[in-house]
């Protein structure tokens, strides 16, 4: 099974999870970039404001052929209860993803993942294979490895 992790990370927390998943799955890892939200507090506030308004920003992402992958795992932080806008910008392009797609989210603890998962499902023509949510504190404090391993085991069980 060939897997791809495609993620957006503003502060680096989601990138840590993407790299852990990439190691566990021997997956390719690619990043969605969004210069609009790079930086400190002002960029953080702009991201929150844009998220509330639903303004999709321009993004930079690698030129990919999803045909070569059996599984694509997409990841992002949750902003104002929804997936970060750069991930929504990517999904709004209606990329031709494989039949197996999973999602992971990092969150600050005040926005549960249910709305974000439902929104991603609304963009996809197939049901999600699995979803994972990790709090910022879990990732930063290194308490995420068991949860990541459980998610990977679920993906591997579905595969095999």
Tell me what the structure shows.
There is one protein chain. This protein is an alpha/beta fold and 160 residues long. 40% of the residues lie in helices and 22% in strands. It has six helices and six strands; from the N terminus they run βαβαββαβαβαα. It has helices at 13-25, 41-53, 85-92, 114-123, 136-140, 145-159, and strands at residues 3-8, 28-32, 71-79, 82-83, 101-107, 130-135. Strands 1, 2, 3, 4, 5 and 6 form a six-stranded mixed beta sheet that branches. Helix 1 (13-25) links the parallel strand 1 and strand 2. It starts with a strand and ends with a helix.
Which labels suit this protein?
alpha/beta; 40% helix
């Amino acid at each position: 099974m060939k897997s791809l992790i495609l993620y957006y990370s503003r502060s680096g927390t989601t990138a840590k999870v993407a790299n852990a998943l990439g190691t566990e799955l021997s997956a390719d890892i690619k990043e969605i970039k969004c210069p609009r939200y790079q930086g400190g507090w002002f960029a953080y506030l702009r991201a929150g404001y844009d998220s509330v308004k639903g303004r999709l920003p321009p993004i930079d992402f690698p030129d990919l052929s999803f045909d070569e992958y059996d599984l694509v795992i997409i990841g992002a932080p949750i902003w104002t209860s929804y997936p970060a806008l750069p991930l929504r910008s990517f999904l709004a392009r209606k990329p031709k993803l494989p039949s197996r797609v999973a999602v992971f989210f990092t969150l600050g603890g005040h926005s549960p993942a249910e709305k974000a998962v439902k929104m991603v499902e609304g963009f996809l023509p197939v049901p999600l294979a699995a979803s994972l949510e990790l709090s910022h504190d879990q990732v930063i404090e290194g308490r995420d490895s068991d949860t990541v391993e459980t998610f990977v085991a679920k993906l591997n069980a579905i595969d095999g």
